[in-house]
Amino acid sequence: MAISLQRIFEMADIIHDHNLTIPRNIHLSEKSDGLSIEYSWFKLKYLLVLLLFPLCSYIVVQSPYVEGNINEITFPVWIIILLNIIAAYYCLTKVLNTTEIQVNYNRIVIKHGPLPMERDLIIKRSDLTQLYVTKRRLAHRYYLYSSTYQVNAILSNQHVVTLVKGLYEPEQGLFIERKIEKFLGITDISVEGEVKKD
Predict the structure, then answer these.
(1) Nearest to residue 86, comparing CAs of 114, 45, 41, 49?
(2) How far apart are CA 128 and CA 141, in angstroms?
(3) CB pairs under 8 A, 24+ apart, for 179-188?
(4) What tens digit of pLDDT does each residue of 153-162 get?
(5) 91-149, pLDDT tens digit by residue?
(6) 105 lies in the same domain as 173
(7) How much is the pTM?
(8) What CATH number does the domain containing 139 carry?
(9) HSE of 87 in the Cβ direction (CA atoms, 13 Å)?
(10) Which residues does residue 145 pair with via DSSP β-bridges, in sequence order?
(11) In the 8-state DSSP scheme, what is residue 192?
């Protein structure tokens, strides 16, 4: 029985798709009528900061360099307490939160939680034309840099929206892009500035 060249390519693409390695911090659930990709924000350093920051703050408050202490709360102590609350909440989101991408043939729904931090997003399939991954470079002190990655969507009105950001590895973004494009039947087209694919 003759097999068309197109069918051979389709079979090879299916095999390649199933052999994709799921990157760390990502959980995939595939069904015939839907796709669910869950990305965990967890990174160990935020757990360490969550534990160590209050201890360091307590030492600073109890030192002679700060007016007041835990028993006698002054304005500088209130500032340190406020900074602790902000830092603790931010670190908790990085430890506990996940981003869930729910895809069906009508729309993409992106939810973040359980702690409020990012806005949820809904994109209609009819509005979506292309997905691509970009690298974001973050500057730190002493001329040091770190990079994160994000998955972007080009809409039919040519607007660009970010689906997921803050990914620690390019493989995470490329995996999400490929899975959504494959499920929705979107032909991958090169976009200027995107992360290079293997």
Answers:
(1) 49
(2) 38
(3) 179/20, 179/28, 179/35, 179/37, 180/35, 180/37, 180/101, 180/103, 180/108, 180/131, 181/131, 182/17, 183/30, 183/35, 183/103, 184/103, 184/105, 184/125, 184/128, 186/128, 186/129, 186/130, 186/131, 188/130
(4) 999 999 999 9
(5) 999 999 999 999 999 999 999 999 999 999 999 999 999 999 999 887 655 556 778 99
(6) yes
(7) 0.79
(8) 2.30.29
(9) 19
(10) 139
(11) T
**Full residue range of the structural domain in which residue 86 is found:** 45-94
Domain contains 191: no
Q: What is the torsional sign of CA 165, 170, 172, 174?
A: positive
Q: Kindly provide the residue ranges of all beta strands, DSSP E only, lying in the chain, ordered along the sequence.
A: 26-31, 34-40, 98-103, 107-113, 121-124, 128-139, 145-155, 160-167
158 backbone φψ class: left, alpha, beta (φ>0; ψ -120 to 50): left
